[in-house]
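Inputs:
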Amino acid sequence: MKASRAILILLLLLAVAFSLGTVLQLHAPRWTHRSPSESVLALAFGESRQLFANHFFVKADISFHSGYYPSIFDEARQAEENDNDVSHPDEKEEPKSEGGFLGPPTDWIDRFGRHFRPTLHTHLQGGNIREILPWLRISAELDPHRVEAYTVASYWMRKHLGEVDEAEQFLREGLRANPDSYELLFELGSLYYDNRHDAGRARNVWLAALRLWQKQESGKGMPDNLSLDQITVHLAHLEEQEGNLDRAVEYFEMAKKVSPTPSQLQKQIDEIKQRLPRAGTLSPH
Amino acid sequence: MNSILRTEDLRVEYRSRELKQTVKVALKGLNLNVSAGEVFGFLGPNGAGKTTTMNVLLGYVKPTEGTAHLFDVDVREPIARQRIGYLPELTYYYKFLTVEELLRFYAGLFEIPKLEAESRIDRLLKLVELEHARRQPIRTYSKGMQQRAGLAQALINNPDLLLLDEPTSGLDPLGRMKVREIIRRLKEEGKTVFFSSHELGEVETICDRVAILHQGELRVEGRVDDLMARYQCNLEQVFLKVVDYQPQP
Amino acid sequence: MNKVFAISGVVIKELYRRKDFYVLFVLTALITLLLGSVNFFHDDRIARYLKEICLLLIWISALVIAITTTARQIPAERENRTIFPLLAKPVTRAQVITGKFLGCWLAVAVALAVFYLFFGVISGSREHAWPVLKYFQALWLQWTMLAVVIALVLFGSVIFTSPAENVTICFFAVLGILLLGGHLNTVALGLKEPARTMLYTLYFLIPHLEWFDVRDIIIYDWPRIPWLDCLLATLYAAVYVALFLFAAWLVFRRKVLTT
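Outputs:
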């Protein structure tokens, strides 16, 4: 067969394949359970992507600590040491021994090996914090229902990198995948309050978060009290700033029920009550 | 005359890896003596022990008993191979190299100075008629070309002793003639050639002395003319008589 | 030594005439460039993820090149029967082992140099900085580690019958040491006797290849490793290289080779 004829046949076959591909692409989603908008990562990793999403989330934390991170063996050893430790819980805050989670070197190999790896507990500062973002992005890409990836990324972007628009966009992406997530709504509210200085929108979003929390968590045996504490305390501070002191008290009272530091909140309640107008002169909404 | 190649009571046993540990005796007390400047034919049917003898001489196999020397140096010493050239029966060389690179490599193993090595490579490629293919990878060569490349590498160090294992195996008549010519030329230069072959017609033509091995034992050794005179027949007939060949009725 | 260099020269020629290295380099480059083209939150100053992935690919590729190139040296010589004309020359088996080791090690050095040059270009394009000495340290330590791996694989190639077997076992051994070697002491301390002693003995016996993995130092911009520590690590590796090569020679010299 002449070369030119062979090339023409090849081109014809390519054209047929391409045409078939474009036609079948419209019908293919009906044959599978996959959404046509699923990403390459989702397709590549399949159902194990949640495992990888967790791995990349941890990678972000490793990156934040510049590689100084306990392995599963270090964590197991620390857990064992904590079980055997009878000292006061407050004393457990700081690592007692040399080398942080590493502990003192057990032999010369361990000692020498530490010259070749990070051994200091540090956090990324300033603009370097951006280095954790790719891992959080990939984690969210792999598991869109992992809300921490969105909230953590958004927090660092808006608080430390000044990338408020990107943070909001990412949060909204998370909300599209997780419309019932009170964590994401809380973070979005924080963005409006802290960065956009839009108390009205922040209030609306935080109230939506509170409603969702009450709908999902209130009936549970072990509800997510930390999130409730955060939402109500922030609402309380917002109302306090806006001059709605009675509402502020209301929210602080809600927070006090679940807060690990109720006495601190009680102090704030007492302080606000002192500033409240006398009974019968409540400010209108 | 100088003894270039000498074996004394050479015995080689192979132990089987099976549990019963059976022993196969490949050579039973071989005594060989090859003098300088002669062309020595090493004959025998398949399984006679010719290859085992070659393997011992080249240091691939350690003898169970006895000794083997090349140029009065024990074959187990690498220096014993400084003055020999070896052409294996099956010629396999690094396929990704060209014949030029292959010869350069082997010249490096003999620590031949670079200039001298280049000159020898040119001469050898002309001798074996591979000049036109010097820069082609060996994997593109025909069997005959590979055999000629093998001959060139066996001669790179200008050896005093050439060990050839079935040198004309697989060659066409022209190729075989070329090899015979080269052997004759080497003999004229005073080199010693030790080769095994099944081509008895060739052996009769070019060898000074022959040895016939059978079942690990040396059956007969001597000048070709003397053996033919003793047995009153050609070399092939001598061979068949020595190995106790019985024709089928 | 000339003979050793002659043998190593053939090994190097083989590497750059085979496709393995080029395929791995192109794959590394493609994946890195692809990931580098991804825009994370419209911030093109993000560099560490790219450095991490590039270095990971370099490590994987270098290990693959080192192990697969070395594993086939001696078996291929025997299978292709090129060992016979080689040993028919005035070359000792020790020189063959040394020559093969040197050839594989130098070939890997060439591969590493190309990989690290690429890495330098990629990281420099993001960070606009070239900590050359730090990169050199990383390259040197990785190359030193690969010397131990090559010597180990060479030893394996005279023990195991097939290259595939050798490659699999050595890959698992090397990966196991890299990932777990530094933690065996921690695990051992949590065990009861005699398992504790056995594991601790193993911990002391294995070559600690994880020392030579200094990717975190490069990725997270930690200060350079003290040169004395690099030297001591190199000497440590040299001891293991000598050990494995000596063991390989002890086995190889007794091998019966029959044509």
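Remarks. Chain A is about 65% helix and 0% strand. Confidence is low (pLDDT under 50) at residues 88-98 of chain A.
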